[in-house]
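Review form for a predicted model. The reviewer records the input and the model, then writes brief findings.
Reviewer: anonymous (R2)
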Amino acid sequence: MEGLTIGWYGALAGLAIAIILILRKLNPVYALFLGAIVGALIGGANLEQTVSVLVSGTQSVMGTVLRVLAAGVLAGVMMESGAAETIAQAIVKKFGGSKAILALALATMIITAVGVFIPVAVLIVAPIALSVGNKMGISKVALLLALSGGGKAGNIISPNPNTIAAARGFELDLSNVMLAGFIPAVCGLIVTVIIASLLKNKGVKVLDGDAVYNEIDASKYPPLGKAIVAPLVAVILLMINPIGSLTGVEVLSKIKVDALYILPIAGIIGLLAMGQGSKILEFTSSGLNKMTATVLILIGAGGIAGLIAASDLSVQIVGLIEAAGISGTFLAPISGILMAAATGSTSTGVILATGSFGQAVLDMGTAPLAAAVMVHTGATVIDSLPQGNYFHVTADSMKMSIKQRMGLIPYEAVVGGTMTIAATIIYGFLF
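Model under review:
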């Protein structure tokens, strides 16, 4: 591997092959590995060097994988205990029907922000959205935009795999990346509510047969006070270091916390607070099972990230940016946008962007935190394409056809684009 440089055309070929295979319904992990192998060979590597490229790439994502597995404890607790449903229901009830779109967007944002995967968050809130939409005559496209846009906003301030990947890619604390995404997330939420409100009379309405949601059984799920314990503990513990740095309290600023142990601890404390300590094995196993598919895709993404990192593709792109006279600051969001679009996944896109272009972004003078936030928000612009599972999960949750779901992509891109522009202005130019 030492001194090996794979041709940029090999990296592009490998990425194209992986995308085509994913679209042809091959398992994404195998598609990414096959793309990496063929791309390395096309780019001039021999068989031994190809194996080294894959091993090196997959090794680079192991830190992220460990933290994603740890996050499974919190995710399992929030999903299996009913805590996420309790939070969603409380928010929608609090705002009432007159602010339905805001309530749905905010509910999905908060549930995603506290550590629930964005597709799962949409699945949790979708039945409530269908019921509200049926009663108030709100179109499906407006409802799903509220859910998806709110989820995107919550996703960039969450302890989810994508945020962990952004933090690890630039060797930052997870809490700092979560905190830095707050203003872009609020911008995303505002734009989501505005656009969804404008679309509420456009497109297919919710039929009576689609709205089968029933009020949650209060005796089955935990009360709100107990449901928020786990995410509250996670946020408090993760924010110890940033708060110490901001306030100048040296004792706090020296405490180095890591998602690897903070998220499981928060999940277990929340479980005990809800009086469901006896279900720890059941809930943590469920959380681990839900993380497995994500972990495997991250490993596959590591393989193709190894290919791109070993190639001169980043050098070529930097050369194009310089030749065009574009500020080097834009490399960070552009890499996030392109890689997430290629894979149809925020977390996979972040892994590819940080692993492939991370060093080039830093070499152009961008600070690590700024780079992480711009890559991360960039990965939310066009990540909901048909080659990813999020597209299909969300379409099914709202009982929409593929054509109807395709029509939502431009609006989702506006939400993601707003967050990216906000992040680029704030971290790329102002600070």
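Findings: The chain has a mean pLDDT of 88.
Further findings: The chain has 24 helices and no strands.
Recommendation: see findings above.
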